[in-house]
Amino acid sequence: MKQSEIATIVLVASISVISAFFIANAAIGQPEGDNAKVRTTTEITSDIVLPDQKIFNNNAINPTIKVEIGGDKSQ
What is the pLDDT averaged over residues 20-38? Predict the structure, then answer.
């Protein structure tokens, strides 16, 4: 390659990189300096709280047991 061809390739490549930078900067923009508000959680402790007896009843129906409603009507 001639020296002028190499110089032309370097010039075109540098112009392409600079123009791509400005185009991308115009399309995407700069991030704003706004602060985000983030909720914090409460600390996890090893304390165990018993569940409400109205909701978790020992005499309630167990949904893991198969229940058949009705019977064999052919009898």
Answer: 86
